[in-house]
Write a structure and sequence with these properties.
Elements: H1 12-16, E1 25-28, E2 31-41, E3 47-52, E4 57-58, H2 62-88, H3 94-125
Antiparallel strand pairs: 1-2, 2-3, 3-4
This protein binds zinc ion.
């Protein structure tokens, strides 16, 4: 009887970087990706060891990484507009404006992840 010659399902970043070992890093379109020891769940539901280094966000593939990049750019551009608006406000102490701008900078990572993961939450609630 013939053995079912089923290949190991390698996809996403494992396919793109087949030579990567645990703790290796790769630069994907400006994102620092690390292949970690443990397996995590990507936003799409796939299991992956690849995580974005700065945010520790699991990203399994180019498709999911592109989504992350788009979300990050969108949030950063929007927050830049918000800061511009705050600095254009009259009769507000410049120190207060600076405090608000610093707070926005401090929170931007959290905001990026919240918006990125909002899609996952919506899918799971269906
Ligand atoms: Zn994914």
């Amino acid at each position: 009887m013939m053995e079912n010659n089923k290949e190991v399902n390698v996809s996403g970043f494992d396919k793109l970087y087949p030579d990567a070992e645990t703790w290796d890093m790769r630069n994907y379109k400006g994102l620092a990706l690390m292949k970690e020891k443990w397996t995590y769940e990507c936003i799409c539901g796939n299991k992956t060891k690849w995580c974005e280094f700065d945010f520790e966000e699991p990203l399994c593939s180019e498709e999911c990484a592109k989504k992350f990049i788009r979300t990050k750019m969108y949030v950063l551009m929007t927050l830049k507009q918000v800061k511009k608006l705050i600095f254009s406000m009259k009769n507000i102490d410049p120190a207060i404006k600076a405090t608000i701008a610093n707070e926005i900078n401090r929170q931007n990572g959290k905001i990026i992840l919240k918006i990125f993961r909002a899609n996952l939450k919506q899918k799971k609630e269906v």
